[in-house]
């Protein structure tokens, strides 16, 4: 059998902040030539059974997935989990707790936006939510675009939803240790998502990778829709330096928003161990 190259192990459905259902994503991934797929909704695995069944119907191989929000030295970092048992109680319960703070946070975000004259943002964002436990900044962004306050997602985040802006509410997510432990305890593999996005100093980034490994983390995203081409090379080096396997994923959210299309990024650079080689026994 030829080795898998077109793996897309990062994307979002209506179960978190994507706009397509798991079935539609599976069809889209398959149409783009994806051989191995994972749906990685934020802090949620409620779409896994549907995604696995849809992958099978399209003739695609599948790995279970999620993207867990954590707080590391006061910044939000994302840890992707792949190939876990989606019925594992600690994982299910840990994710439920991680989702738990989102509704209050969203109401506070709405209060912040009301102070600068944007009324009804909570109710407005809710109209875009597919899963009541998973209201995210992306849903607020869709509301602010629909209501004509901003032209696109970038503008919304830049003006309203990042640290220091009126709709930003500091939030404490899971710990790095908990997220990695939930994933590995359920038989899966933990991956640092889009490391270039965090804008850590070299020392902070070293701390993240070192602690991640110490807790049992095994992978890092190298080729992702959130990285530039030079960043593929940078994080290929980081993967080799830290002895981590490499992952590839579009982080696709919606056909209408400026995100990378499923299955279309370059393949992983040479001399890296793909995460799916370590997960051979978990592929469905
Ligand atoms: P939350 O988990 O509620 O903090 O929302 C995070 C989500 O917002 C991410 O997963 C992205 O989908 C989206 N997001 C974050 N930053 C940006 C940005 N600068 N531009 C567009 N989308 C963003
Ligand atoms: Mn998202
Ligand atoms: Mn992310
Ligand atoms: Mn993502």
Structural class estimated from helices and strands: alpha/beta
Spans of at least 5 consecutive residues whose pLDDT stays below 50 are none
How is the biggest beta sheet arranged? 5 strands, mixed
Number of continuous helical runs:
11
What is the distance, rounded to the nearest whole angstrom, between the alpha carbons of the first and last residues? 16 Å
Strand fraction band?
5-15%
* Spatial strand sequence of the major β-sheet: 4-5-6-7-8
Q: What is the helix/strand order?
A: EHEHEEEHHHHHHEHEHEH
Bound molecule types: adenosine monophosphate, manganese (II) ion
What's the β-strand tally? 8
Mean pLDDT: 97
Which descriptor suits the 3D outline?
globular
Helical percent range?
25-40%
Radius of gyration: 18 Å
Task: Describe the 3D structure.
This protein has helices at about 20-30, 50-55, 90-100, 100-115, 120-125, 135-145, 155-160, 175-185, 200-215, 230-240, 275-280, and strands at about 5-10, 35, 60, 65-70, 75-80, 190, 220-225, 245-250. The protein is an alpha/beta fold. The strands form 2 sheets. Strands 4-5-6-7-8 form a 5-stranded mixed beta sheet. It has a 3-stranded parallel beta sheet with strand order 1-2-3, covered by helices on one side. Helix 1 (about 20-30) packs parallel to helix 2 (about 50-55) and helix 6 packs across helix 7. It is globular, with a radius of gyration of 18 Å. The two termini are about 15 Å apart. About 50% of the residues are buried. One manganese (II) ion binds near residues 12, 17, 42, 138 and 253.
